[in-house]
Amino acid sequence: DSGVTQTPKHLITATGQRVTLRCSPRSGDLSVYWYQQSLDQGLQFLIQYYNGEERAKGNILERFSAQQFPDLHSELNLSSLELGDSALYFCASSVVQTGELFFGEGSRLTVL
Amino acid sequence: QQQVKQSPQSLIVQKGGISIINCAYENTAFDYFPWYQQFPGKGPALLIAIRPDVSEKKEGRFTISFNKSAKQFSLHIMDSQPGDSATYFCAASGSGTSGSRLTFGEGTQLTVNP
User: Fold this and answer.
1) Cα–Cα distances in angstroms (integers) from residue A25 to residues A61, A71, B77, in the given order
2) C-alpha angle B102/B105/B106, rounded to 5°?
3) Which residues from chain B sit within 8 angstroms of residue A68, using beta carbons?
4) Do A43 and B44 touch (CB under 8 A)?
5) pLDDT for B4-54, tens place per residue?
6) B35 and B47 in contact (C-beta within 8 Å)?
C-alpha cells in the first residue's frame, strides 16, 4: 500500500460526459501528480500541483482540468469525454527531498 | 528535450537468467533516475533509483548501471524469477524545491518463464 488513495477505481461513462477523479496523497506529501496510461502505453504526465498551486503542466488536454484543495487532496476533471480518453489515470504524491513518487492504484476510465 | 527512450519493448527470460533493460536520456539537467515496477492492475512502485554521482547501485538481485557521459542507464535483474514478470519503467527527473515530475520511458514487459 503506497498510501495514495484514488477513487473511483473503475468508471464507465458515455461520450460527451464529464467525470471527476479524486486523489488523496500520502500524509505529509505536498506534491500531487496526475499521469495517464493508455493501453500498451507508457505513463504520460498530465499536471503537477504543489501545496495548492499548479507547478507543471504536461500534455493535458484543454478538456481536462485539475485542482488541489487546502487539505491537499486533488481532483482531475475530464469533460466532453471521447472514446480515446479511455485509460488508467494515476495520481502520485512525492517526497520532495528524495524525488520518489508514490503512485495510487489508479482509476480505470472506460468511455463507451 | 524531456524524452527518455527505453528498450526493449518486451523481454522473455528463462528462470535464473539475467534480464537487462536499457534507457537513454537527453536532458543533462536530469539528476535522479529511478526504475519502477508495475504489476497488472496496480500502480507503479519504485524498485531502485540512482543519482549521477555513482556509476552503479545494487539492491539484492537488482542493479542499476549508470553512464553519465553516454547519458544511458540500465537495469539488470540477476537470477530472474517468475515473480519478476511485470512491466518495468525507467524514469528521470531534475531537482526542484517543490518536487519534480518524472519523465518515463515507454516501458518493458518482462516475462520470466519457469
Assistant:
1) 23, 10, 31
2) 135
3) none
4) yes
5) 999 999 999 999 999 999 999 998 888 899 999 999 989 999 999 999 899
6) yes
